[in-house]
């Protein structure tokens, strides 16, 4: 899906830009976002809902995957809404010019300040728990109507990493479905709360269709039940979670297949229950943006441990991509300036952090590398920049967006001055 191709026989080009030249121009490491791939994924989601769903639909970009002005603006310009999970993400989406009617605020422990910002901005709040509902009622002005959805835990298991599973009953997110009666009763009695829908999210990097189909069926039952409490619930949000192909062995359904599977279940279940079709929302993150970005690094030192392993070190690591050390995630890499060289070695790509576990890829198949080569790790658009840190006081890399041979900076590289910007040295500690 990435619009990467090899030109001049030997070097990697993305969005019409030569990767090695980009690194010379913008520095290393560098996140390179391919606009066409991102737009195409947005369109695939949008078009699939149009094709397979007879009611209204809205795709939200789960911006936790990569929240910044440029990415929010691209997603919004493709007609997507934005899912945000904090005041900071909300602020960024608003600053990017996203219309508040298309922003949904998530979170299992939103602060009062975050809730007030959301209410004042007119975005929809996805209420997660009793504490939040009571806080909302408390801070609502008389006569106000706060647009909310209810997040419920569906009790659906799926096969993915334990840390990114959210739909099972002991998840920290959402109301227990056993409390449905109480929650619906409470919400229906609050004149300041305008409950428009139900939401659930079962996990991330999921390769099967069945869990989301089961989810959709359960959610239609919630819709039906809501009617008994006089609630006019018209929106149903099935969350995100479609997996992507990080390696050859990963086999997720296509965006179209995933959307179709969900639409069919919602339509059938609504027909059985004799319910009007709700507005159907979904909020993919990873499957929209992961394949649209690569990270380019510069190769430096290496260490050969005879018969055991060869380490090739790059100038970034767990601070710009914490996924391998956090979830044992697997990535693929190529050498941008040696695209036609034969693959001759199996190496371990190590980061530059003071931590043995700072390994980006175990057993990468690469041509012979030398210092100065540009190593490109594919599929780094989701949960890389957004989870990046300054561990070991590494400045966060820059990011550029590329399209039609043009590259524009979307995130500046941090400087050493940036690193101490929030530091303060009390007078009495000065040396
Ligand atoms: N909606 C909600 C409520 C979510 O919690 C998430 C992801 C999404 C949508 C988007 O899910 P996606 O389509 O991206 O799978 N940092 C982890 C992933 C954490 C996902 C958290 N929630 C990783 O790097 O794999």
UniProtKB/TrEMBL annotation:
The modification N6-(pyridoxal phosphate)lysine is found at residue 64. Pfam families: Orn_Arg_deC_N (PF02784). CDD domains: PLPDE_III_DapDC. Residues 38-290 form the Orn/DAP/Arg decarboxylase 2 N-terminal domain. Pyridoxal 5'-phosphate binds at residues 241, 283-286, 383. PANTHER family: DIAMINOPIMELATE DECARBOXYLASE, GROUP IV DECARBOXYLASE. This is Diaminopimelate decarboxylase. It comes from Nostoc punctiforme (strain ATCC 29133 / PCC 73102). The gene is lysA.
